[in-house]
Amino acid sequence: MQQITGADLFVKALKEEKVDTLFAYPGGQAIDLFNALYGEKEIDVILPRHEQGLIHAADGYARSTGKVGVCLVTSGPGATNLVTGIATANYDSVPLVCFTGQVPTNLIGHDAFQEVDIVGITRSICKYAVTVKRREDLAETIKKAFHMAKTGKPGVAVVDLPKDIQKAYGSDAYPQEITIRSSRLPFSTYKEQMEKALGLLNQAEKPLFLIGGGVNIARANKEMTQLAQLTGVPVVTTIMGKGAIPSTHSLYVGNLGIHGSFAANWAVSHCDVLFSIGTRFNDRITGKTETFAAGAKIIHIDIEKNCISRNITADIPIVADAKEAISFLLEKGKLLSVFDWVEEINCLKREYPIAMEKNGLTPQMVIEAVNDMFTDAVIATDVGQNQLWTTQFLALTENRQMLTSGGLGTMGYGLPAAIGAKLGNPQKSVVVITGDGGMQMNIQEMATAVVYELPIIICILNNGYLGNVRQWQEMFYDRRYVSTCMRYRRSCETDCNNPHQECPEYTPDFVRLAESYGAKGIRVTKAEEIKAAFERARENTKVPTVIEFIIDREANVMPIVPPGNALDGMIL
Known about the structure:
Elements: E1 3-5, H1 6-16, E2 21-24, H2 31-37, E3 44-46, H3 51-65, E4 69-73, H4 77-80, H5 83-91, E5 96-102, H6 118-122, E6 128-131, H7 138-150, E7 156-162, H8 163-167, E8 169-171, H9 191-203, E9 207-211, H10 213-217, H11 221-231, E10 235-237, E11 252-255, H12 262-270, E12 273-277, H13 283-286, E13 297-302, E14 316-319, H14 322-332, H15 339-351, H16 363-373, E15 377-381, H17 385-393, E16 400-403, H18 414-424, E17 429-435, H19 436-439, H20 445-451, E18 457-462, H21 467-476, H22 510-517, E19 520-524, H23 530-538, E20 545-550
């Protein structure tokens, strides 16, 4: 048994955990960790341009590969710049381990330079957070962090490493296993509940599967598709659950919720058994909770006990892993006589499709071109109207995956998440769909994409507004467009709510900005230019391409459930 520094043990631990990519930004209190990484061949150390971009990239890497994303930053502002990304990943159950440098243990609590209590700051927004106070605890703490991040309901672990612990010598031993008492009961404990749920499903005349992100997290997409086919029961999804079965499948109804499809919201409102798996029932999908699935018996399966009946009361609560539960149903399930119910829903899908007016260049046209031209791809969205249009029109299959910030709704997520996805999936096409506002929140990561020669395609839907807020101002605040116009100048009228040709030019010029980074830039103003733009972008195999689509400034995401309304009170 050798004596090595804590920094060398840190590198050894990463190798033992099969970490091949580390998203890292150096600083004084992490310099020993970086020194230990010098010349390392087995770990690809990626240097983004901002810590928030760094953690979103680790997030995109984790979501797209199924591996644990790992990042390393220094103390103080380096650590606090991770906070939004920690919350983003933890809300969506993404497995990340975040290492932060810290001042030496004897200086903790003395307001040392660049000292912050990052464990105290992040404890409420992550799964596990700890400062290593003793060198002999380092190996077990790192092992526990990886275990916590990827087992049960995945999430974020934060490990704070004081500088003296990094420099201290100790054993080079790293545990192969760690024993942590699990709060989860074995699946057999819930077999009786599962039998009861299956019996209720078999008796239903209008059953409906409601699938959340838990099914995607469990990588149970294939099994969920088989279950839908076996039972003949239609499927609606949350935004995070989209892709649980192919969106082209005949039994897929659509997303439900505030911007869901009419057919999906109607089906939830009229079903008699709602069989939900892996969803939190948050306010974005329920609308007015008192009326949500009011005539239905509700079965709720989730890996997290605290999620069940928190927002919507479950008639049959089941704490279980989504994949285990679906596998049980596959063994016991049967084809149900619900053909009339399925046809009723399909009639509504045909009668009330989600579609934008075809005048000019629309986001629907752009996203449908992505469907046609990128069959084996990862699509990362930002947040805002661009995200909602993507979740409406993007067709997801087993070869096309969507990454998006669902629980926290973090602007600036799309570009760095796509960088992480491309690093983790170099053989796949990676496309970003973002808005002009979200693009500017982490635009510095263009440099990262360029220097690592990542040919991602960045689609900017530019309407010159913070479009989602502007839409709410239009629909619910009498067109009082406050702080949402991205073409505003100090010389403009403060009460302007009427975009027109005389508006100031947009800042920045995205095409020229892309070129200044060493990327390619294309501007598209007409529908007939979309395909050619994507074809040109695919020819750029060493650098990213920015395609700026100039869309209608007041294009809206429809349909919409107004705040406080029931799901069947949609504005179409």
